[in-house]
Amino acid sequence: MKVALFIPCYIDQFYPEVGVATVKILKKLGIKFDYPIEQTCCGQPAFNTGYWKEAEILARKFIKTFSDFDYIISPSGSCISMVKIFYPEIISDEESLNIAKKSFELTEFLVKVMNIDSTGAEFNHTVTYHDSCHALRELGVKTEPRILLKNVKKLKLIEMENSEDCCGFGGTFSVKFPEISSDMARYKVNYILNSGAEFVTSTDQSCLMQIDGYARKNRLNIKTIHIAQILSNF
């Protein structure tokens, strides 16, 4: 089984600790993998902004880089949804369909492909989970992260109200419509605060960045942590 690790741009540039946490998990579980150094952006920012031709260039590079692997995994529902759902839409050929079938968000890969329900991690805190739009609505990832979190030693999972509501980030949406984005974040942050949990986690660092940014600006006591960082705490 040939496994490749894909690290999204924003994790590589701003949150490398999430990539490191993902590597720790895979090594702990004995999953051998490669990290193709040629990898770059999946093309989602260009695609979402309407630059489909530019996105196609990046998509074809991604396909060329990862085509020889059996599985491509990433600690991001957002980027994997780009590959899995939208590559076949902008390219629409056999190669794009094949790469889509082989691409998985991290928790989905662990639970559905590897049949793993625990990483052996320990995290002595209360945690609430935010369902990211891409992971939930496009990939159908909902139970997988919760299965893994519930099996983390000493962790207490508290479900917030309306966990499936969007955080308001949406990539370039937050730039084009900052007022709407900020108001959506306000609602999400209130749900998190009302849960009483110490931490909020998600499969997507982009959502956590949005939540953390709003909380910091408004001096609210909310701690964000990517699910890979919890699952690698052993």
Automatic annotation (TrEMBL):
Gene Ontology MF term list: oxidoreductase activity
Source domain of life: Bacteria
Signal peptide bounds: none
Name of the protein: L-lactate dehydrogenase complex protein LldE
Sequence ranges assigned to domain Cysteine-rich in this UniProt record: 3-83, 127-212
InterPro entries: Cys_rich_dom (IPR004017)
GO cellular component: cytosol
